[in-house]
């Protein structure tokens, strides 16, 4: 019998795999938290499918999202990223990724890890939304507003409340799998 999934992921096998294996699964690795932040900020104004189809290219172009390496990118590396057709060639988004790597290093010094900072907003526990109709899923909420404001104050770029809400869903801080979806129960 076919597993029932959130309707948003049914458009392709790649989307279903992302949904089944990654979306909403709690992430606690700083490098992966940074990677997902960069991928989500690149999604702004685009479909997730666009990002998903370029994900391998992003990992290659950004040195596996090694935070220290990305934080040290110079103008020559920025220019090479601007020429890389395999990623989103948006100068503000590329500059934001480099800037945000530098901010993550500051967070690590202040909090011990990026993970400790991110999960401190929810006392280390995922928020379990009860979603029966995917149209009920908001684009932002009080948590994404609060985190976005704090991150902006710390110098992060491209971290508006909508980007942060999508990020929180992706890294499992918020479980927005529909109640009929098989992943919802697995992530409780």
Automatic annotation (TrEMBL):
InterPro entries: Adenine_glyco, DNA-3mA_glycosylase, DNA_glycosylase. SUPFAM superfamilies: DNA-glycosylase. GO terms for biological process: base-excision repair. Zn(2+) binds at residues 6, 19, 177, 181. Gene3D superfamilies: Hypothetical protein, domain 2 (1.10.340.30). It holds the Pfam family Adenine_glyco. This is DNA-3-methyladenine glycosylase I.
